[in-house]
Amino acid sequence: MDSTRTTRSTLRSRRTWSAVGLAAVTALALAGCSDDRSATDSGDAAQSSTASPPPDLAAGQVAPDGATSDVVSGLEAPWSVVPVGDDGDAFVSERDSARVLELRADGSTREVGTVAGVRHGGEGGLLGLALHDDDLFVYSTAEDGNRIQRYELTGDTGSWRLGDATTVIDGLPANTFHDGGRIAFGPDGMLYASVGDAGNRSEAQDRDSLAGKILRMTPDGAVPDDNPFDGSPVWSLGHRNVQGMGWAADGTMFAAEFGENRWDELNVVEPGKDYGWPEVEGTGGEDRGFVDPVQQWSTDEASPSGLTVIGDTVFVANLKGESVRGVPVSDPSTATEYFAGDFGRIRTVLPGPDDTLWFVTNNTDGRGDPRDGDDRIVSVPLTTGS
Q1: CB 359 within 8 A of CB 326
Q2: Which residues are bridge partners to 326 per DSSP?
Q3: What domains lie within the chain, and their CATH numbers?
Q4: What is the rounded end-to-end Cα distance, in angstroms, of the chain?
Q5: Rounded distance between C-alpha atoms, residue 274 and residue 281, angstroms
Q6: Interatomic CA distance for residues 35 and 94, integer angstroms
Q7: CB atoms within 10 A of CB 382
Q8: CB-side neighbour CA atoms (13 Å) of 307
Q9: Against a cut of 0.85, is the pTM above it?
Q10: What is the pLDDT of residues 192-237, one digit of tens each?
Q11: Is the CB of residue 237 less than 8 Å from the CB of residue 212?
Q12: Nearest to 32 by CA among 116, 89, 117
């Protein structure tokens, strides 16, 4: 009993690098491939690029500034990552193997555990991770649909293990595509989850269906009293496939969303609002009662997945667009593109330790062209405008 209390206290004290504490989410995404495997002894080739901030970087805006370096390489279909403490340690999910890995600051990885009952196929599998109150929350695809589970963590740095699992919510719409999968705790302490339309387009407009929605729940899965629809976990509707969520310091919620054939979207999410899918894709829905995106990109240049907010900048990872975009919170209709084509598909972004940005490649997921050393987590220094 005493050792358990000590472990939990240690984990709490190391949360200073949490996505919520930095007004960011995660949403965020990656995985590892072997126990106790270090990037420095894997033989994988290093890959690097250099970024420069825009010359007109405004006060409070954040931008990559300098050369990249690999945090770890040789990962397989990484999807989500959540930091543990402020020293560069993190938990990582592998989509296809259903393993959760512990990543150490030295680039080594070890298996924390395997999530039981995960059905891998297409875009489904082990997806989002989130940390809250010393428990690891996991979004995954099972035989009877997508689900969110809460795992008690045991052990400590270098020896974390998955303990008992409790189901938070299950039976969420699932398919081999459009599974959503991002989970994050907002600044209000509530659990947010993105659920894709799972190919059932019309259900995104049905308030009684959880397909094509962003959900908001208590950590135990109960419906908060101040949700927009009585007795429903639905926070917003009319989404096709949201895979990135994050909050600015003033509480503004941003979400990145995959379009179909024309427009991918960056939305400001408000409770009870309808974002138009499948009636409208991109802008042009306001006169029909839908909320227009604050920015849209052609599907050929984006496929936005993970999202995080650092300072006054929203960073968005792009899969098909193979880049990281920086979007000012104060003017989310504009963007600066970084690393275009340098690292292939990018699944997620998150704040790293010591004023860095981490981003995660996704070239081994069956849709990319793996390069020597893929997949990898990459770090780049950040600078803030003054």
Answers
A1: no
A2: 315, 336
A3: 2-43+75-311 (2.120.10.30)
A4: 49
A5: 12
A6: 13
A7: 23
A8: 30
A9: yes
A10: 999 999 999 999 999 999 999 999 999 999 999 999 999 999 999 9
A11: yes
A12: 89
